[in-house]
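Sat 14:20. Reprocessing the chain from the morning session after the first attempt stalled halfway. Input below, unchanged.
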Amino acid sequence: MNTNELNNPRYYYNRELSWLLFDERILGEARDKSNPLFERLKFLSITASNLDEFFMIRVASLRDMVNAGYNKPDISGMTPEMQLEGLNIQIHKFVELQYSTLNKSLLPKLSEENVRLILKHEELNDRQKKYVDDFFMSEVYPVLTPMAVDSSRPFPLIRNKMLNIGALLTKKVGSRGLVQTGEKKKKSGKDSYEFATVQVPNVLPRIVVLPSERGERGISIILLEEIIERNIGKLFLNYNIVCAYPFRIMRNADLTIDEDEAEDLLKEIEKQIKKRQWGEVIRLEVADDIDKKLLKILLKELNCREEEIYRIDGPLDLTFLMKLYGMDGYARLKAEPFNPQPVQRLSGEKDIFAEIRKEDILLHHPYQTFEPVVDFIRQAAADENVLAIKQTLYRVSGNSPIVAALARAAENGKQVTVLVELKARFDEENNIVWARMLEKTGCHVIYGIVGLKTHCKITLVVRKEEEGIRRYVHLGTGNYNDQTAKLYTDLGLLTCADTIGEDATAVFNMLSGYSEPLSWHRLVMAPLWLKDRFIFLINRERDNALQGRKARIIAKFNSLVDRDIIKALYEASTAGVKIDLIIRGICCLKVGVEGVSENITVRSIVGTFLEHSRIYYFENAGNEEVFCSSADWMPRNLERRVELLFPIDAPSLRERVIHILDVMLKDNVKAQMMQNDGTYKRISRRGKEPVSCQKFFCEEAIKLSENKEQYETSRIFIPETSSNVWKDQ
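Finished this time. Tokens:
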């Protein structure tokens, strides 16, 4: 097939609609009755949080394009306006399914477990009414700020993502108050009414547990906004409350930063973060039975379009379900907790540098603990032979032991250089705090290269030893975050290979100065060479297949959007290369297209842990090559970010990574296969033993931690037939 023909939009899905299918797969976990009840609540909460971010960034970006008159179609042939229209239809359907899941499935199941969520304050009994009224006056009333709207008090600025209660009021007959006759008021027929709003304070818990009745089992819960709505008249004593309804808005939260013009990037980002609360409104959530007059005021004052209204049949903002999930006493309604397992080679008071010198170490999170990565920095900070530590930080936890160890290293006189990526979306404020703290302890803090996000995960420790200077390196597919390392699946490599150490030095020289390397040994960096390297590796498999050699590609990553990569995959498929893609999220490639992608499969695994690792396998005529990376196959990763691809060279570790891919391809519990129409379906298990890759890896990690000998010869965990089974499928 002509390469130019592969530019045809009919061979590509739209990325935004593909992302929505990913959130639908998560919603599928909330609807899956085989999952524990509280896990289903958690998944529903995640879909809501994901959708919020999608609106604030992706929908907002499309809206900006439309407002600017930009009408260039994407790779699927859809203009920004067409995408917004398509998303509007699909997201409204999605939200309906969210609340159908809550109202028809989850809430009844909660009631069966004696967890009663009271959605309307009218449903309270007399004892509960007295309790919430007293609670309102003692705990809530002092915090509230009622905002009236009249000629002297304009419509208030409504903050992004915050719950509010809007009300229509009429003045009581004979009341005086501060508002004088003649003030401009809203008119509706014969009635004169005024608008007011109250922000539901996020400094108070949204979930309020009501006192139990005598002999009553379980708990009853009401949401804070219902308590405020019931008592809103106490905020407007001289007025009658005509109606009161909750509402919530979503604003454009994408930061616009001109790095070339910014004299101080840190201060510029701080300034832009403040603007995030007041961006253009792109979504308005209201109760499905909201008063028409009240809605009309909101639409006008918030400058909202009709299609941006989402009428909600239930509580607004389902992220509160994560708080419900976190309540104590319901372990039986949750998945059995898994504790990341220790790594035998590094347990106890082992010298981590001595262990790395023996052999490279591969870490598989969250099945294996993240603690060795923290210990790597801690030992370096305390080791008198360590001269320098260099590290990139993209997202770190709120009380990061990594940051604490870096600070301690600087205080101990080490040369510490830390690249803090200030532009990590929604972590900007957190990273600014860490950057300032690290600077105060004596670390050299840098912010990377203008115009590029530094997304690679790399640490370099320079140590003086008897043989001379030796460089130790950690490379990872995930962030240096000890908390998300318990939830995200990632791989990390600890090595002291000379070639990788030299390349790591070149990485940091490039990030901190003006040094642009001519060539490297083993690491491949974006945006310099990574895209070309991936296309070369794919084309090599294509050429091998055409020449009758062994050819196979297996790639596990988060999103596939880049058209050049997709075209290369199509050409390899046409040549006969079997390609298995394990893609958690967006996929713009189409499977099953005759003469184009018949040899390509795409599956997505959504489970207890977030699949986050990036693994790339190429059979290479029998000389297998395995790489890990911080990069997905997206233009932003390959062209607008600093990313790294690193090889897994040690034969035993390479087989272990192949084994990981093998198990994931066998998953028939949480895996879903992309169909020819772009939808996803679960794999039929008829007549087959259930295989959940995440459950398998949990059990495997326990075995690895219990048996040092098996860990050191990790091939024993690879089924004898595994190296060939998936190659011939």
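The longest strand covers residues 239-251.
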